Amino acid sequence: MGSHTDSTDPGDAPHRTGDAVPTPTTAAGREGMEALLTRPERAVLAFDFDGTLAPIVADPEQARPHPDAVPALAALAPKVASVAVVTGRPAGVAVAHGGFAGVAGLEHLVVLGHYGAERWDAVTGTVSAPAPPPGVAAVRAELPGVLDAVGAWQGTWVEEKGGRAVAVHTRRAADPQAAFEALRVPLADLAARHGLIVEPGRMVLELRPPGTDKGAALSEYVREVDAGAVLYAGDDLGDLPAFAAVEALRSAGVPGLLVCSGSEEVAELANRADVVVDGPAGVVRLLRALTARLT
User: Fold this and answer.
1) Are 217 and 116 within 8 A, CB to CB?
2) For an engineered disulfide with 179, which of 15, 94, 173, 203 has Cβ 3.0 to 4.6 Å away?
3) DSSP 3-state assignment of 257?
4) Whole-model pTM?
């Protein structure tokens, strides 16, 4: 059952939620759940956006939260120390697509965009961010030539990420997996020439600056809030650093709970989770169950 330092039977499968608060399959996860339920005023709950709060769609510009996700977050948020969205998207885009601004109950929501390089606070309604890294613009200029050299992968789509990253999506290609594999090395070479890295995901390869990831963003935010417990929910490879951050916090004495928004595409995440739910709809059920327990 992933890399957990506890006595859980390795053959155990992660518990999938129904309407009740689930029992995590690891001792560390059970400790994290207990801390969240008994000391909610010290708990930080953090969520990825795409695939966790919002279903994965072919066109990322059309991604929107599950219809019940924002109401469920708004009902739970006043009962805990803080709720945060941690995403690779630009913070402003995540706020707009998520419909998070001006929602009663989410007056203190924080959105950490671009893996923490940007931050939106509901209290101020503004985004704070450093200047865009120059390597991204250079990569964007060369990207069409690289894609042409690899081959005409019809349906491959390039997503601009506010000048801070560029993502190449293959989900709409004739053969998504073949396109993904063919592009991995050329895009890694392109990124390296300009001081960037490639972050693979679910049929997407993102070129972005090194040194920022969801784990660093989450760890910094947990320290800022002085949290006594943390829950993190994600669905993709980009969420692994956040999982690692929660595991490190556990080792430092801060209880934590790892939730996978279940996907057969990313078994590695599910194997490390304490609780697996069935996608964004399962995340909503978990939020509702937690709210009911804390009422």
Assistant:
1) yes
2) 173
3) strand
4) 0.78
